UniProtKB/TrEMBL annotation:
This is CDP-diacylglycerol--glycerol-3-phosphate 3-phosphatidyltransferase. The lineage of its organism: Bacteria, Bacillati, Actinomycetota, Actinomycetes, Cryptosporangiales. Keywords: Membrane, Transferase, Transmembrane, Transmembrane helix. The keyword Mitochondrion does not apply. InterPro entries: CDP-OH_P_trans, CDP-OH_PTrfase_TM_dom, CDP_ALCOHOL_P_TRANSF_CS. One of its GO terms (cellular component) is membrane. The keyword Repeat does not apply. Belongs to the CDP-alcohol phosphatidyltransferase class-I family.
Length: 194
């Protein structure tokens, strides 16, 4: 399901679905593991927490599509859960690797504010989730929610940090910030159309 009809816009659920269960479990597991990683000063546990977050995020999306359980409520839950995981894990990374503070100071506000607003913008149109934003604007979708964009927007920055390339991580975080700013302007213009 990609488009929703007008009456369906009022019905956002069901909320009790397999993908939403996966989202809740992966969020709790990643956040708890991230907090324990900081308390124990364990980079290994922080890496495990990131793995749980990313694998769980892929699994809940796959399950939603495979089981035909994509819902607007599930999309919002996924977006909010991604922010909870990212906030805890990014702060944990800064605590354990202080050299990442500059990268985090660019990446975290970009993801927590700009990307959140962009991701929730799908609610203004009759689409089920940001994954179908190409039906609204193909360029904004390609830069933010296409498979390549999803991989580069977060994993690229974290990957560069993981291999100790903090300058590249900062360049990628700045590039993502520019893309998010451009996308926010584009979405604002779409919303201003009659």
């Amino acid at each position: 399901m990609t488009l929703v009809d007008a009456p369906s816009l009022l019905r956002v659920g069901p909320l009790l679905t397999v993908p939403n269960g996966i989202t809740v479990v992966r969020t709790l597991a990643a956040v708890v593991a991230g907090v324990v990683a900081v308390v124990c000063a364990s980079m290994t546990l922080l890496v495990v927490a990131y793995g749980v977050y990313w694998l769980g995020d892929m699994l809940d999306g796959w399950a939603a599509r495979r089981l035909d359980q994509e819902t607007r409520a599930g999309a919002v839950l996924d977006i909010v859960s991604d922010r909870a995981c990212t906030a805890v894990l990014c702060v944990g990374l800064v605590v354990l690797v202080p050299n990442t503070a500059v990268v985090a100071s660019v990446f975290l506000p970009s993801f927590m504010v700009l990307d959140t607003m962009l991701s929730l913008a799908f609610l203004c149109w009759p689409v089920v989730s940001p994954n179908y934003f190409h039906l609204v604007d193909r360029r904004v979708w390609a830069l933010n929610w296409s498979p390549a964009a999803k991989a580069l927007n977060t994993a690229g920055v974290i990957g560069a940090v993981a291999v100790g390339q903090y300058q590249w991580a900062l360049v990628l975080a700045l590039a993502v910030l520019v893309v998010k700013l451009w996308s926010a302007v584009a979405v604002a213009r779409l919303l201003d159309r009659p």
